[in-house]
Amino acid sequence: MAIRPYWSGTIRVSLVSLSVDMFTAIDAKGKIAFHQIYKPTGERVRQKLVAGDIEVERADIVKGYEVDKDEYVLFDPDEIKELKIPSSKAMELVRFVPYDAVDAIYYDTPYYLAPSKKADLATFTVIRDSMREMKVMGLGQIVIAGSERLCAIKPCGPGLLLETLHYADEIKKSGYVFGDIKDVKADTDEKDLAKQLIKRKVGDFEPSDFHDRYTEALKELVEARIENREPVKPEERPAAKVVNLMDALRASLQDTGAANDDDGKKPAKATSKPKAKPPSRKAG
After folding, report:
1. Residues in Cβ contact with 189 at an 8 Å cutoff, skipping those fewer than 6 apart
2. In terms of DSSP H, where are the helices of the chain?
3. Residue 19, pLDDT score
4. How confident is the model at residue 157 (pLDDT cuts 50, 70, 90)?
5. Could you give the residue ranges of the DSSP H alpha helices within 161-244?
6. b/e string for 128-137 if b means 16 or more Cβ within 10 A?
7. Phi, psi of 223 (to 5 degrees)
8. Which residue from 47, 48, 49, 44 is spatially nearest to 33, judged by alpha carbons?
9. What is the distance between the alpha carbons of residues 28 and 79, in angstroms, rounded to a whole number?
10. Both ends of the chain: CA-CA distance in Å?
């Protein structure tokens, strides 16, 4: 069964046009979902639309914007619908920026882009490879479900990745969170040790190395209930100990040094030899 595109349209770079299909990149099946069930009967709980004690019909509901406590300006749903931007099958990349030009806080939802026509495969490859070699991504706006979203497009394997971005007014200012952080000058020796520790842990990002232990525990709980057995409890992570920063950095370097041994083997424990006492000086 062919996968249905979430959006299909044309990407324009100046006078160059490219037909693409857009597909969601997030798999919601990886998460466990529960329904609310009425325990005495096992029936699913349904929610009703109410205003106080009165059950209301959906046709009688309008939109309301709260201007004061329990005071609303009312709008008919059709008034809101009229503001929606008509679906557009074209998106223009108006600017190209380096990969690191957009702060991570702006990224929202990822989508895969693939050429929708075999005739566009050559153009698709040229644009993709040119962006990859220049290490830039394209910025533009796309209309999805009646709203216009800012987005970034960059190479992703043999295809392209489109990520919707938050607008500037959607991001909270960090001052109210970071404002009280004092400008403390870091200790040079501590920084040197920290840099050594970080350097030893630098490597490639391997997503498969990380697991959502909560989701795994939920899946195990569900499977155990279906199989009428006790669930296997996940291993608990050791509690962090509060220690002196320098001691913690030195201990961490020793641990990572053993883990990253060139031979891939655990180094033999070194037996500590007592230090030789310096010769005593005789007076006189």
Report:
1. 246
2. 77-81, 121-134, 175-178, 188-201, 213-226, 245-259
3. 92
4. very high
5. 175-178, 188-201, 213-226
6. beebeeeebb
7. -65, -40
8. 44
9. 33
10. 99
